[in-house]
Amino acid sequence: MSKSIQDILIQESLSREDVICLLKANEEETRLIFEKAAQVKTKFVGNKVYFRGLIEFSNICSKNCYYCGIRSGNSNMTHYELPADEVLEAAKYAYEDGYGSLVIQAGEISNKSFVDKITHLLKEIKTMSKGKLGITLSLGEQSEETLKTWFEAGAHRYLIRIEASDRDLYSKLHPNNKVHNYDFRIESLKLLRKIGYQVGTGVMIGLPFQTIENLAEDLLFMKGLDIDMCGMGPYIEHEDTPLYQYKDQLMSKQERFDLSLKMVAILRIIMKDINIAATTAMQTLDDAGREKAIKVGANVIMPNLTPLKYRDSYLLYEDKPNLDEEAAECKKSLEERIKSIGGTIGYDEWGDSEHFQQRIKK
Ligand code: 5AD
Ligand code: SF4
After folding, report:
1. Atom 16 (ligand 1): residue with closest C-alpha?
2. How confident is the model over 324-337, as pLDDT tens digits?
3. Which CATH number fits domain 27-361: 3.30.1360.70, 2.10.109.10, 3.20.20.70, 3.40.50.10700?
């Protein structure tokens, strides 16, 4: 007789088959998974939600990922890079409003001028905030030297999503060339850890060609890498990308959303003390998507602080929300929404991953 969901949820560690079983759970069983994930979250990381003010520094990218709206091959977009004073203004806003941390994200560029600009900005932000603003970078694969320079300049967390941990699937989502090398991406994640960063990764959920088995392996991949943070969410098609041709083979958006929630909950169950983001992609498919993710395990939200005039140029996928919402308004409604689900906000705190704190003690 096969195991019940209850049997699986009381186990200390979960096998690949157990995770597959959870991912295939029906509605009633899923409620049990969500309950368990909420309990684990309360016990291991508490009910605080941390804000990271997101600054989308530039939409210029040297890569050509088949799913992404800002890929280099998309000529149907306007390129931008924020001037330093606008980055600092957004950082100041975050600092004065008690956000505690920033995420600086951009397409992947590695030339000297870009690297120097980021180094300079990191130093400026640290000075402006008297060292109080935490800084996460999400700037793709970079050389060891660059990653060290940025770490020394004040960045202490770094996100590189593996996007799909299955090598074959990865190769269907990216051009097969040196710039989009699966092994190099994994090496980059290990390098970040060696340098001393808190390391984050993540995947997209509901991609063309992706199976439930792939997703179970994604979760176990993150566990195997012993990551400190995760940001994952549904894949959302974008018209100006090669993967758009498979749009009729996808799960419905509702199914992709539901599966993403399940992924968040299961990750919380198997990696009890990491930081998990309630991502914008989840909010794109459901207005209350981020709150729903917080209820079942997420503890980080990244409100967008990119100046409004640039936002419609950072379109990774269709229907990306918040294009017309001012940061202040956005924050107020978020605060209310979080309170309504029993969360509190960790104002003025870095909100480092508990998992990281524990692993550096070892
Ligand atoms: N749907 C969902 N997420 C996407 N990303 C890029 N394109 C899409 C898409 N079409 C995500 C990737 C990337 C991050 C910046 O945005 O996971 O790492
Ligand atoms: Fe560039 Fe990242 Fe988009 Fe790939 S997913 S094209 S690396 S911004």
Report:
1. 316
2. 565 666 677 788 88
3. 3.20.20.70
